[in-house]
Amino acid sequence: MTRRIDTYLRDLVSEDKFDFYEVVRDFSDAEVGSKILEWERSHTLVPDDCIAQMGELGLFGLPIAEEYGGQGGDHTDLVLMGLAMAYHSQSVAITPGAAISLGAKPLQLCGSEEQKREHLPDLAAGKRMFAFGLSEPGRGSDAANPEVTARKDGDEWVINGEKCWATNAAWSSHVVVHAMTAPDNPNGKRSTCLIVPMDAPGVHYQEMSGKKVWEQSSTGSIIFEDTRVPASAILGEENEGFKVMVTTLNGGRLFIAALALGSLAFALDKCRVYANERIQFQNKPIARFQRVQDVLIDMDIALERNLAWLMHCCRLYDEGRLAREQAAKVKVDSSRAASDLLVMAMEMCGGVGGLDEFGLIRHHNDLFVTRVGEGSNFALKDLIVRPLQA
Question: If you average pLDDT over every residue of the chain, what do you get?
Answer without folding.
Answer: 96
